[in-house]
Specification:
about 160 residues; mainly alpha; 2 domains; 7 helices
């Protein structure tokens, strides 16, 4: 039988149900929103899908685009463009080292942490970094096209080895 007491209880329960539903929808919206805004979804789902359909490791296409930009600098065959390409390649290798978890207080410490991955070209990487430092700190440093190509090849091999490990 419905009386005033029972109707009051029903209205109270109905009010709490409506508030609960609105709070649930509100929080569900924010969970979905932040899931898409964060990189969690990318790492958990998108990475596998991209690898499956492209038959390449995740990030390899981005790495190839970056190397294409660096290589494009060398098309003019000017010494200054080679120098800029070497500086860009060194910066890119530092970024790759950092993303792979080989961080250090400087480049030498970072690359030494990754030395087991690049053991075959470790000395070449150190020489390439020394050449980069000479370019940056000594404006009179002379660089031939052959030396620049060799240095860029070393940076590219190291970046790909570390980036895809």
């Amino acid at each position: 039988m419905l009386n005033k007491n029972n109707i009051g209880k029903i209205v109270g329960v109905l009010f709490f149900c409506i508030v609960f539903i609105f709070c649930s929808v509100y929080f569900l919206f924010f969970v979905i929103y932040f899931m898409f805004k964060s990189s969690w979804l990318q790492y958990k789902v998108l990475e596998d899908v991209v690898e499956f359909f492209s038959w390449r490791a995740y990030g390899q296409m981005e790495m190839e685009k970056q190397w294409e930009k660096i290589r494009k600098r060398t098309e003019s065959k000017l010494e200054t463009d080679y120098k800029l390409a070497i500086i860009d390649a060194d910066d890119f290798l530092e970024d790759v080292l950092e993303r792979a978890g080989y961080e250090g207080k400087d480049f030498n410490e970072s690359i030494s942490k990754a030395s087991r991955l690049v053991s075959s070209i470790y000395d070449d990487i150190l020489r390439a970094h020394e050449a980069r430092n000479s370019i940056v700190y000594s404006p009179d440093f002379k660089l031939t096209a052959q030396e620049a190509e060799k240095i860029l090849g070393t940076y590219e091999a190291a970046s790909k080895t570390i980036g895809l490990s």
